[in-house]
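Problem: given the chain below (302 residues), write out its structure.
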Amino acid sequence: VRGMPMIHPDNIGGTGGIDVNRLVDLVDSGKLSAPKMMYLVPSHQNPTGHTMPVDDRILLAEFAKKHGVLVVADEVYHLLDWRNEEVDGQRPARMAEFNRIHSNDEDSTNSIRSNGCCISVASFTKIFAPGVRCGWIEAPDRIVKSIAQHGYIVSQGGLAPFVGDLIMCRALSDRIGDSYLRRLNKEYANRARKLCAILQEDERIVLPNGRPTGGYFLWLKFEQNVDSEEFLAFCIDQGTEVRFRPGTLCDAFANHSDGEEQIANDETSGVTSSSFRSYARLCFADLDEADLEEGGRELLKA
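Solution.
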């Protein structure tokens, strides 16, 4: 398992996503072998809230088809999107939709090149109810057929047969899910706006990706080289209830036991855990507006 080239946290245009152009350049130049599979969260990514632009999605889909790379897109936040399209632009399509790019120009005898390699995986857990361990997969036919008969998929696992066959089928057929999703997006949008408005009162806090247009998370930077781990420890020592996820703890490869592999991951990704030293992730999804306001004010006081 290795990290992919990442957009550096100090990038002016935003942070948090895969640097697709650098990935393509590294592979084309022979400096990096093409991976067998890639996992990513292309929409409202955890922890930064970054959404991969359409141009990057097209380039990644073309790269995947060229090299036969399976791209597994975890799109649980894709429908949690409240953007104003006149201001923020249109929401990008799901990654599975980009399998259609240039599909007619490829060798029809090669199923990977003709049908694409992008897989979209989503869940009702984030858009209907946390206990609903039920979701769906969108992928080329050959991929769907290869997993459709696996025991876990057939049985739906655990309580999922009851949830999927009864609760979710009824909710979808009656379009209950649609109205609930609209309410959820409205509520999360209000919470995100409330939290951002409070934090932007203090010039020492910067929102590198701006206000969230979807998802669960707000990514921020503490100015004046404040170490987010030390600041969190200070908040706890002072007896406050302020909690957040320090950016250094969001690095999946930080403190890797294999030193050589850690160096390789840092060189490939272009960032290290220290790159996120002054950054933090806040979650606005599990608190109501009153609690978010109280927490935001406490953070500014600290």
